[in-house]
Design goal:
- This protein has helices spanning about 10-30, 35-40, 45-50, 55-80, 85-100, 100-110, 115-140, 145-160, 170-190.
- It is mainly α.
- The protein starts with 10 loop residues before the first helix and ends in an 11-residue tail after the last helix.
């Protein structure tokens, strides 16, 4: 049964608990995501928590929705403002490297156990992949390779977040090397004489 609130909580009151939840996930993992841990990170009482959220289930649903909106959709929206597709690809590397990888690693573990979280995770991965593909498509002018480049880009990210041999430097190297390969492909295609050859008579 939902608790009756005395007044509507402010956005700040909710966000501080949501950010605390992401910190708990990042530093201690999904198994540590408990009310006491979140309140400790937020430096707040359980009474303050229950003023912001009716119950724990409401909080966890809000936490995953907050992560999706603020840590994925908002960066995508900002990257979309970069009009040149090549420059946008470079911006997407910056976005990919600045994601809350430790929190996302814990969310991927959580998603394996919770259908609601799993649905959000699938949609986030799809939204990211689709935007990368869209950008490659603008840069390359065709679909097949754009889809492949986008899918491999996501493999780099998901592999890093889910792996046990994690190296941020290697992720940085992998993303930049892969983009250089793609840009080199674009430059080769744009070079004079790179089009289909004309059969000799």
């Amino acid at each position: 049964m939902a608790r009756e609130r005395r007044s509507t909580p402010s956005r700040y009151a909710r966000v501080r608990f949501l950010e605390a939840g992401l910190t708990v996930l990042a530093e201690d993992g999904y198994g540590a995501l408990k009310l006491a841990a979140v309140c400790t990170r937020a430096e707040a009482t359980t009474g303050s928590f229950y003023h912001a959220f009716d119950n724990w289930a409401e909080f966890t649903s809000a936490l995953v929705a907050y992560w999706r909106e603020e840590k994925s959709r908002r960066p995508i929206a900002e990257a979309r403002k970069v009009t040149d597709p090549r420059e946008r690809l470079t911006e997407l590397i910056r976005v990919g490297l600045s994601l809350p990888h430790d929190s996302e690693s814990a969310i991927r573990i959580w998603a394996a156990q919770d259908p609601e979280v799993h649905a959000h995770q699938e949609e986030v991965d799809r939204e990211r992949r689709d935007f990368i593909a869209e950008t490659y498509r603008e840069a390359m002018g065709e679909d097949t390779d754009a889809e492949r480049f986008a899918t491999v880009s996501m493999y780099l990210l998901v592999g890093y977040e889910s792996g046990t041999l994690r190296s941020f430097d290697a992720l940085d190297f992998g993303m930049r090397t892969f983009l250089a390969l793609a840009i080199g492909r674009l430059d080769d295609d744009a070079a004079p004489g790179s089009g289909p050859s004309t059969p000799e008579n």
